[in-house]
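User: Sequence in, structure out. Go.
Assistant: Echoing your sequence, followed by the structure tokens.
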Amino acid sequence: TQQLLKAGRQQVANLQGGLARWSDEGYPLAGAGAP
């Protein structure tokens, strides 16, 4: 999260469990390699 903020990103969040948990819970992913 801190690296993204330092890079100038403003809308960032720390996801407990990471993207794997996000996907396992049915939330969408977008971008390269998305199902």
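User: And one key feature?
Assistant: Residues 15 and 22 are 8 Å apart (CA to CA).
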